[in-house]
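Notebook p. 47: complex prediction with zinc ion.
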Amino acid sequence: MILGIETSCDETAAALISEGGRIFANIVSSQADLHARYGGVVPEVASRRHLELVTPVVREALGMAGATLDDVELVGVTTGPGLIGALLVGLSAAKAIAWARRLPLAAVDHLDGHVASLYLEPAPLEPPFLCLLASGGHTLLLDVADRGAKPRLLGTTLDDAAGEAFDKGARLLGLGYPGGAAIDRLARDGDPEAYDFPVARVSGFDFSFSGLKTALLYAVRELEAAELELRRADLAASYQRAIVRALAERTREAAAATGARKLAVVGGVAANSELRRALPDAALAPLELCTDNAAMIASAARFTEAISYPGYLGLDAYASTA
Ligand code: KG4
Ligand code: ZN
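Predicted complex, structure tokens below:
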């Protein structure tokens, strides 16, 4: 079995999968409630919480899989990108487990993890495909040729990530943090054509969402409190429409340019119902594998060269891919 550990942001997660990609346990302990009162993730608070949760979460995963550490043959852990203090907690836990058992360790890139969520049972996707990765921290268009090779980067965001745009919009609408799912829900009762929110057209396959956020801010400012209450669903629906349109259009353009025959969407924003409708032919991981989890990290570990004992003890985490 492969043990995966993920602590790059505000989810403490552990999972056990088979070499073939069958999930035996996938435990995610979200800290969202802890950070909600601050309107976003507070890095130091996240690190401390990871420290409390990481061992119980690994234990729970083993319990659910009916396994012990004796069954683990490889440890896969996220080493970046993410919050550096948060990453170090997962990495230290992974090193300790691997070291104590003389196991190999695979250092997994969080973004490779999101893509590898598509390689799990029961419906693993076979490359090549064009992948939109849209999360709270990243918005990437990737040309995936092979499970083991680094995907080719076709486009990215010049400012905010798509999930970040959802979260900032939700904040302006008073929906709390994280707000993507809340906008998604509220938008169902609104008119997506009520407001014309512009999405900047940037060259190539890149994205830009910061202007959109400003447009929403101005629209909200113009409304009296009572009026805002009445228009909130329309604002949410129109705002979501603008983000989804940009994501879907750019994905289609990239697919046409590369001749990709298969499309896939991964990352937290892949949970968005309108995006799912806008790209009906795209492969999508199940909802619990879209947002941060450790099954995807264990999955990516299968295609990452493992470091044998004790070579990984000096391994470091990295905050960003630069
Ligand atoms: O992949 P993820 O769990 O964490 C990162 O690696 O960032 O993505 C979290 C992001 C958040 O910005 C959240 O608001 C967004 O995914 N999200 C959604 C939905 N569910 C989660 N955005 C739009 N619609 C949703 N239903
Ligand atoms: Zn993520």
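Notes: Residues 9, 135-137, 163, 166-167, 178-181, 184, 267-269, 271-272, 291-292 surround KG4 (ligand 1) (CB under 6 Å). The two ends are 32 Å apart (CA to CA).
Next step: compare against the earlier run before touching the bench.
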